Amino acid sequence: MTIHIKNNINWVGQRDWEILDFHGTEYKTTKGTSYNSYLIREQKNVLIDTVDHRFSLQFIQNLEMEIDLNLIDYIVINHAEEDHSGALAALMAKIPNTPIYCTENAIDSITGLHHHPEWNFNIVKTGDSLDIGNGKQLVFIETPMLHWPDSMMTYLTQDAVLFSNDAFGQHYCDERLFNDEVDQIELMDQCLRYYSNILTPFSALVTAKINEVLGFNLPVDMIATAHGVVWRDNPTQIIHQYLQWADNYQEDRITIFYDSMSNNTRLMADAIAQGIHDVDPGVSVKVFNVARHDKNDILANVFRSKGILVGSSTMNNVMMPKVAGMLEEITGLRFKDKKAGAFGSYGWNGGAVDRIHTRLTDAGFETTVGLKAKWKPDGKAMRECREHGRQIAKSWALHDLSNVDSISSSLNPNQAVKSTVSIAPAVQTSCATTSNDTQDMLCTVCNWVYQPVLGEPNQDVQPGTPWSEVPDFFLCPDCGLGKEVFTPVAQRKAS
Ligand code: FEO
After folding, report:
1. 45: which strand partners?
2. What positions does the domain Rubredoxin-like occupy (predicted)?
3. Out of 124, 268, 272, 461, which could bridge 455 as a Cys pair, Cβ 3.0 to 4.6 Å?
4. What is residue 213's three-state secondary structure?
5. Secondary structure (3-state) at 127
6. Whether residue 15 has its Cβ less than 6 Å from ligand 1
7. Which helix (H) or strand (E) segment is 94 a member of?
8. Residue 227 CA: which ligand 1 atom is closest?
9. How far apart are CA 454 and CA 391, in angstroms?
10. Distance from residue 305's CA to the centre of ligand 1 (Å)
11. Using CB atoms within 10 A of its CB, is residue 68 exposed (0-12), middle (13-18) or buried (19+)?
């Protein structure tokens, strides 16, 4: 199957709906992907890139239905990674003398992957051009590290189409090929996921290379990527989006991720998140368990965040392995201009928090003081976690929080009781104030409410039981903490 792109350009690529993993198992492709190859038929016939090696047979069959392979004059390989040059061996077996245009670095990687040093390689550099007849030329632009040292883009004059390879692409599959045809939210989600998980370390190069390309003052009518959509509607939108992402991108967002052996570090995470929200309801707080959530989604959230909080139980005096793995990934992605802190529960030593703190500092984050809780955090410890969150919210705030009470009230009147920085003393006071047994009691950690009229039959607390008669071993049914974290609802609202 082919898809007409523009004038004498056709897409001859391959969709891959089934793929779940990329780069081994490091990148989860939640929306499939495509390997985009393009056939240009002018006086000379040119193939731009091939497809993943697993689809070599289909690729050759499809291409043969479109053109006699012997009529292909030139092959351009923008990038040698096997998702683009994978079908080259099968193609060259059919047309072995066809000139291949690529960067000098690509000869090394193509030869290393395919073991055919005898192929007819032609090295191109930035600014080199290849005449393909009918007044049109291919102009080459080296883009090292976007995504490999061998990468380049190819620009087709007159048609003003930029074949950008990995850059501006996404792991996204849709039978519709053009950017204006697909779901815009899905598309931009996948663009961000791709950039944040793959290109973040090269942000400085992205900025420099885009400015270099813009400096050529070439018109760009379409950007034909090697994965996902062809940008035909306002194609430069993705260039400007890349410039934003490459500029130490952050939103008013805090990402918390952790692993937890016995749920204790998880309790801390939830309380810290609530403390942040108490003080700054405008900040988007996202909480992930690294053992359960999609790693690439967590990294995309880290990319979007002004700061991160990383938690782990202490196990054998070190952090849990999945947290260590995430920190290794984060170190490699070389995020800039972000804040960070460590937290976690422990039994007899708290080595995990110290190690996380060190790793975050070494990775270039501006680190704040860590927080440890011994064994299962009790009510006092949970209040400290919540207060820790409040302090984080204040010190990481991107805007004035002096009117936070009014901000909170206007955002969610029902939650206004949570939004005062003086909540900690109010909680402490209220813990000792249970004189009115008919009052509803609020769990200050998870906001579950004990209503005497209903009781809590699951714990044999019968309807009509006043708070003073609720047994001391009572646990909040939502978060599992004891009576000491409860406070009268009315008093909290008054505070
Ligand atoms: Fe899509 Fe770097 O390969």
Report:
1. 41
2. 438-489
3. 461
4. helix
5. coil
6. no
7. helix 88-94
8. 1
9. 36
10. 26
11. exposed
Tokens of 425: 């003393």
Is residue 478 annotated as a catalytic residue, yes or no? no
Per-residue tokens: 256: 């918390």
Q: Which of 53, 84, 227, 277 is catalytic?
A: 227
- Residues in a beta bridge with 454: none
Specify burial of residue 362 (Cβ count, 10 A radius: 0-12, 13-18, 19+).
exposed
Are 226 and 78 within 8 A, CB to CB? Answer: yes
Tokens of 162: 């930029």
Q: Please, which residues have CB within 8 angstroms of residue 26's CB and are 6 or more apart in sequence?
A: none
- For 296-332, b where at least 16 C-beta lie within 10 A, e where not — what string? bbbbbbbbbbbbbbbbbbbbeeebbebbbebbebbbe
| Residue 32 to residue 30: CA distance in whole angstroms | 6
Cα 329–chain centre separation: 12
CB 93 within 8 A of CB 117: no
409 pLDDT tier (thresholds 50, 70, 90)? very low
Question: Tokens 């919540």 appear where?
Answer: 386
Kindly list the distances between the CA atom of residue 359 and the CA atoms of 306, 323, 335, 346, 364, in Å, as whole numbers in the listed order: 18, 11, 13, 18, 9
Does residue 174's CB lie within 6 angstroms of at least one atom of ligand 1?
no
Helix axes 203-215, 237-246, angle to 10 degrees: 140
Kindly report the pTM of this predicted structure: 0.81
Q: Report the chain's terminal Cα–Cα distance, integer Å.
A: 67
What pLDDT band is residue 473 in, cutting at 50, 70 and 90? confident
Strands 222-225 and 161-165: parallel
Residue 278's nearest CA partner among 478, 422, 476, 448 is: 422
Q: From the CB of residue 67, how many other CB atoms can be counted at a distance below 10 Å?
A: 16
Take residue 66 and report the two structure tokens written for it.
């479109």
Q: Where are the beta strands (DSSP E) in 81-148?
A: 100-102, 121-123, 129-133, 136-142
Give, for 450, the enclosing helix (H) or strand (E): strand 449-450
Residue 393 has pLDDT above 90, yes or no: yes
| Residue 490, pLDDT score | 62
Check if 194 is active-site.
Answer: yes
- Centroid of chain to Cα 91: 36
The tokens describing 90, both together, are 């099968």
How many C-beta atoms lie closer than 10 Å to residue 365's C-beta?
Answer: 22
Query: 396: closest CA among 250, 196, 245?
Result: 250
Nearest CA to 36 out of 56, 5, 16, 11 is that of 11
pLDDT tens digit sequence for 258-299: 999 999 999 999 999 999 999 999 999 999 999 999 999 999
Q: How far is CA 437 from the centre of its chain?
A: 49
